[in-house]
Amino acid sequence: MTWLKEKLGTEKAIIAMCHFDALPGDPHFDEEGGMEKVIEHAKADFLALQEGGVDAVMFSNEFSLPYLTEVRTETVAAMARIIGELKPLIKIPFGVNVLWDAKKSLDLAKAVDAVFVREIFTGVYGSDFGLWNTNVGETVRHQKQIGAQNVKLLFNIVPEAATYLGDRDITSVAKSTVFNNRPDALCVSGLTAGTETDAATLKIVKDVVPNTVVFANTGVRLNNVEDQLSIADGAVVGTTFKKEGIFENHVDQARVKEFMDKVKAFREQL
């Protein structure tokens, strides 16, 4: 049994993404609609996910494009307000992801009592957002300083829209990440949100770190969820739950329920 059972209520857990619209300070923030519109959309998406039967939700500033690797205060403040307004409605475990800033993710998690965070904690990358460096030693010390030791850390080791600098294959990255950092989970992604996680890569990672929770992080769909969950310990799902399966759209509860019904049937066979 993994920590998923204790914290998320089940093995082979599905973490659904609740993507916030662009926030104050972001290039595409809707000044006319303001925060009220952002909160209205977040509430509708969250309730569709929760009522559709997902195991947990991860709140992220997905439409704060293009992303920063040192996120500004106004973004974290806006996310805290949204989650604070949603908290009376939340009945399932939740996590947060402040794209792409590990320390800010932990700050937000501590403030809103999140169970987990997902981030790029390790490595140096060439990305669409420029040279992307990390400092995991500083990050985990910050985690301790703010009293967030109980927050589970999901290490994304195949960051979207980025390439590892240095000649290292996924096997060595997975092994050294686990040895040096003792992550609560590893996340394996496709190239961008909604792009299927390569099953062969997923299996390589799980085989080399069998005692670590591994999530399929992108592109899990109704037609591949059983295959992905036969390898991975769980999945992070976003685009699949959107209307017509389109990233920019809002959540379709019927799609969520159909997907989760299939997941629950799969879990019953284990």
From TrEMBL:
Highest taxon listed in the record's lineage: Bacteria
InterPro entries according to UniProt: BtpA, RibuloseP-bd_barrel
Which organism does this record belong to?
Answer: Enterococcus avium (Streptococcus avium)
Q: Would you identify the family this protein belongs to, as annotated?
A: Belongs to the BtpA family.
Per the UniProt record, one Pfam family is: BtpA
Any idea what this protein is called?
BtpA/SgcQ family protein
